[in-house]
Structure formats: C-alpha cells, structure tokens
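Hi V.,

You were right to ask for the full record rather than a summary. Here it is.
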Amino acid sequence: MAYSDLQSFIADLEKRNLLKKIKVEVDPELEITEISDRMVKSGGPALYFENVRGYDLPVVTNLFGTFERMKLALGVDDLERIGMDLLAIIQPSELPATFIDRLKALPKLAQLASYIPKTVKSGPCQEVVVKDNPSLAGLPVLKCWPEDGGPYITLPLVFTKDPRTGQRNTGMYRMQVYDERTTGMHWHVHKDAAGHCLNQQKDGGAEKMPVAVALGADPAVIYAATAPLPAGIDEMLFAGFLRKEPVQLVKCETVDLEVPAHAEIILEGYVDPLEKRLEGPFGDHTGYYSLADQYPVFHLTCITSRKNPVYPATIVGRPPMEDAYIGKATERIFLPLIRLLVPELVDMNLPPEGVFHNCVIVSIDKRYPGQAKKVMSALWGFGLMMLAKLIIVVDADVNVQNISEVMWRVFNNIDAKRDVVIVEGPLDALDHASPLPHLGAKMGIDATKKWPSEGHLREWPGDVVMTEEVKNLVDGKWREYGF
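Predicted structure:
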C-alpha cells in the first residue's frame, strides 16, 4: 500500500525501529552530515533530528539508506518486480493485432490510465501560504562539507514545463542557497529541465521560466524524481505506477505549475534563462568536490507548507552513501526494460564506487563474434547511459554482482589491443577527469571468452573447478574431518 506522504513513511519507519529520533541539539552546518555519514556507512537507521540549532523545523536524513528501507519506500519485496510489472504493460510483443487482442489489452491500458496524476483543489502543502516577502531563512538547509560554497537544498523535487509542448518534468537538482530569496539551480546540460530552460531562452527571450520545488513528498514521488525516464515521460505518472494510485497535484499560488498536494514545503519562483551565477563548490556523490561554475538562479516568489512540516535532506559524498541504494533500485527496476532492447543482457551492476554513471558491468548470453562490442554501443545509446565512462562485458556465467569475480575475468581475459574500445562522446558534468567539460573518452572492455571467429586462434583454457562428485563427497564427510 502506498504511503500518503513523507510523514506517514517516517511514522512507519519508527514503528519498525528503522528510524532514530535525536533529541539533543545539532548544528545544520557539518554536524548533521557527520552523523548521517556514519549511520549510512554502518547500515544504520533513518535519522530524525528534532532540535536543529537556530530552527524550529525538524530535519530527516538517510530515509533510503538500506535495501530494506528502499523496498519499503516503493512497497515491494523485490525491486526487479517493479520493472517486470511495467514491462507487462508496455511489452511490444503484446500489442493488439486483432479486434479480440485489442479487447484483451483494454484492462492493461485502463490500469495505466488509472495512474495518471489528478489535480485537486487544495492540499496539505498549502495550509500555510507566504506570498509577501517569502524567505528561505526559516528552512534548516544544511551545509554538508567543509569546502561547500554554502548551504545546499539536497533533496528538492524541481518541477518545470517545456514551454513548447507543456510537458511536465520533475528532476532532482541541488540548490545552493545564496540568500533569503535566491538559490542556484544545478541542472546539467543533459537534463530535461535544462532543455526546457534552453527552449525558453530561444522562444521567450528574457521571459522568466516558472519553476516550483517540492521539499518532502511520499517516497515513491521522491524516487520518481531521480529515475532516468525517457524525455517526455511524466515522472508523476511513473510515481503513480509505483504507488499503484495516482499522485494528487495542486496548482501553485504564483506560478503556472502543479506540485504534489501532500508535500511538506513548496518553493515557487522562476529562473531567468539569461541569468547565471557562480555555484559551488559542493561535496558531491562522486566523493570529490564538484568545482564552482556558472549555473541558473532560482528566484523565490512564494512559500507554501504544511502547518508542521518536516525538512528532508540527503547527504552525498564518498560512496557508499544513501544515493547508493537509490541507484541500485534504479538498476533493478530498469533492468527488465533494458533487456527488452538488449535481449542478450543477463544481468547488470552499477557499482556504487562507479557512482552509477562511471562504471557499468553487464553479463551477456554471447552468441556471435563481436557481440560484446555491439552491447557497448547499444548501452551508450540509451538516454543517460551515454555518460557511462566504463562498460565491462562478461559472459553469462559470471556473477556481475561479485566485483572480485568480474575483475578476475577482466585481468585474465583481455588482450588490450583487441578487447578495449575507446570512443569519444558526452560525459557527466561531474566528471573532473575529462579534458573538457561534458566531453571526453569512454572505454569498453570485452572480458568475454574469445572465439576463433574473433581472431583468437589459440585454445581457450577452462576454469579450474572441482568435480561435483568430489564436492559432494567432501560435503558428506565434512564433520568427519574434524571441522
């Protein structure tokens, strides 16, 4: 069953002893980060800070910092089940060919339609409305790391619309607080919101682009804002699919946008497409500081909220952090959909150390020469997978979740000239090693067994493995050995 809002999720975590309430006063500058960092790296609970120095609002962190909490957030026992359920709705092989087939498909289409977000007249997020002199000063925004350029809103759900099509997008882009009325808006050039802003600049000139930011929604809505959906697919529709009931939206007070009615806090405002300001540095999820650069500026026009809201935050830094579990959820959820387009794909691992866009490890059912390189090219052509700096391909019998096994295959199975592919293309904005921003070289490694048809004319050796007969013999005598 879906959580109605963030506070119901928090209450359930507390009931399950998966949340720790901290009553002692804590500092939003650095102290909350250090506590949260220790908790997530030790597999600890979500944290609810009741007494934040200088502020009336409580702060909650580490909501998604274990697989158990990630599954609870999305209401499943198996994250991959979500992708399978979605595949059952959109599977092209099931597209109706006859009239009878069309009738059979109607229940699935009706099911998908039932997840379309619904606009309501009012919601808890507008219990308190501040239009005159709205200020960010009352929000306990965290300064996370010593060299950060300032305090950052780290878990914002940023709502924009394409000025050309009216299509909504929800993304998660950090926001450096400059003062009581302005913040940075760190959307990268590859992101949909940046495309909306570019279209606004081209079509509207200096006309301001409306932006709304939701702080604290139900966990499915929060996750949906991070999901790598194709452009034009509404994240709120996807959230409805995850929740198995539609997301309720309410119209903003000062901008022409809709936001989750059950959010904790809403920031309404605009971005001037022609205005940029220095943003950063920021201790990022790569484990390095992303350097200061010019980014758009968000101007606050209104704040609405619940009467007693909770301020949510996530801490990013050297992995593994909370975002590791969000990223692994994405890996599991979208694997069935990737298999739809790359049917030879067996499994995939986006290791936290690769911060999800630097390393992709896949196993394939290899059937023809050069297939591993075909898979690399296919993956680099999928949306934000284009940013993958390293793709490693192994055979189907290799457990890609076992990094030691993968590295054993890589270190032993490759000829550097034959099996390493270097291509140039777009890279993540946070890649500090690329010679140019957003552009550089990417590498593919084919660590599969090589065939004569791939130019390997020597005999390929077998793995050193004991026979099943001897394994069973030793199993049966194990206690006799005195162990």
